[in-house]
């Protein structure tokens, strides 16, 4: 003969105590959902941003905006700074644009920096990266440095394609993700000197002494 199981106070039939039947159990579950939901939404946005190639950080947003703003425009001046390491020397290249924005290229990475504006004071903001003891007056770039004879850029979505021909015949084709500034691909080559276009698209450049990491470490 079938009998009905008694209902334990504080639960509904079919649930055991502590199995979600109590009000307290539902509150705990609801709290858990509220805690997890923002993480799920952020994760979903990251997936969507990656799929749609949208900027996900302030750095990516600045890169995207300024690569578009100065698309096919030459900088006012450039400043290559040789960084000497135990395994070799690599230039970090600073390009200064007309409204004070700076593009920094180092290896396969690049990042734009907007000019930091004072809040209505009109004062100049110091951008010194080195102690004054290491600051040296810039000198003209050596004349034997290869100048850019021709440059062309195209923009496809979030990818910038840049073709350069240098006066010494070297060629460089670079593919850049304008969100991250990363160089996705780079191809270098050489063409005959008589095929180099006549022209000089190299902006005025300055050069400072090499920043030797080993010497700086000894000073500290």
- What about the largest sheet? 5 strands, mixed
Helical run tally: 3
Mean pLDDT: 76
Based on CA inertia axes, which overall geometry fits? elongated
| Category by helix and strand content | alpha+beta
Radius of gyration: 29 Å
What is the strand content?
25-35%
The strands making up the biggest β-sheet line up spatially as 4-3-2-1-11
Could you give the distance between the termini? 89 Å
Low-confidence region ranges: 10-14, 119-144
How many structurally independent domains? 2
Beta-strand segment tally: 11
What string, H for helix and E for strand, traces the elements in order?
A: HHEEEEEEEEEEEH
Task: Provide the helix percentage.
Answer: 10-25%
Please summarize what this structure is.
With 220 residues, the protein is an alpha+beta fold.
What are the main properties of this structure?
single chain; 220 residues; alpha+beta; 2 domains; 5-stranded mixed beta sheet; 4-stranded antiparallel beta sheet; 3 helices; 11 strands
Question: How would you characterize this protein structure?
Answer:
The chain has 220 residues and is an alpha+beta fold. It folds into two domains: 19-52; 58-117 and 141-219, no CATH class. It is built from three helices and eleven strands; from the N terminus they run ααβββββββββββα. The strands form three sheets. It has a five-stranded mixed beta sheet. Strands 6-7-8-9 form a four-stranded antiparallel beta sheet, with no helix packed on it. The longest helix is centred in the N-terminal third of the chain and has 30 residues, at 23-52.
